[in-house]
Model the fold of this input.
Amino acid sequence: MSAINDRSVLVGLIGAGIQQSKTPDLHMEEGRRQGMPYVYKLIDLDSLELDAEALPELLRAVRQSAFDGLNVTFPCKQTILPYLDELSDEARAIGAVNTVVIRGEMLIGHNTDCTGFGEAFRRNLGQAPRRRVVQMGAGGAGAAVANALLEQGVETLVIFDTDVGKVRELIASLKGRFGTGRAYVGVDLAAEMATADGMVNTTPVGMDKLPGMPVPEPLLRSELWVADIIYFPMETELLSKARALGCTTMDGTNMAVFQAVKAFELISGRPADATRMMAHFQQLAAAGD
Done:
């Protein structure tokens, strides 16, 4: 994809409760460092008093306003699918979109959550055992992470969610891509945690607006590695308790940065400096704590 030249880049983030998102600063700073005017707007459903049903109208306005791309977050990663003109192979397989590239009238959906988590896993947990892993959550982000975990060689992935139907849909999708026997619907959390090598939280439990832990603290043990995709706060209660026990951990800044790197590249057509974006993100996160 060719780079955008000689004009500013206009990007938006569609989601609910996104006023504290660090994504706009992350993108705009990288654009500034590359000498590229980069304008990033929040399209906050909560502030606009809208829900995901307003997506067709919002996307129409985005087209008319000559946006170059969008990032997409909760609760729109899956509901946006019918309104897009094309999907990347990965977005189609995962069934969720977090980045939309706009070229003319075409809205092209991508999923950089999967590649972002995969890169974060390789860099931070590359030597971690992965025979059996417990995943909490089967939403849009959970689907991306599940695909990434299986791509990273997890032998058996056990997925838990309060919506069992959603887990079954995700399992069926994973079966089509990775074959039978790689992922299962979780039934007994205590039993699975007792035999797992690691666990990943992809639910919103642990965010500032939804404090708590996605699993009971007594189920954690020092042999586990623990990953969380939440980055606000960077130190969730889950990670804090896990670290206190001696677990190897990975916080949500890793996935957040590497998905943003790929999204920046897709939208702008220019390579991004991942090391620079990570350093800037950590500055932003520290300032927000």
User: Anything to note?
Assistant: The mean pLDDT is 94.
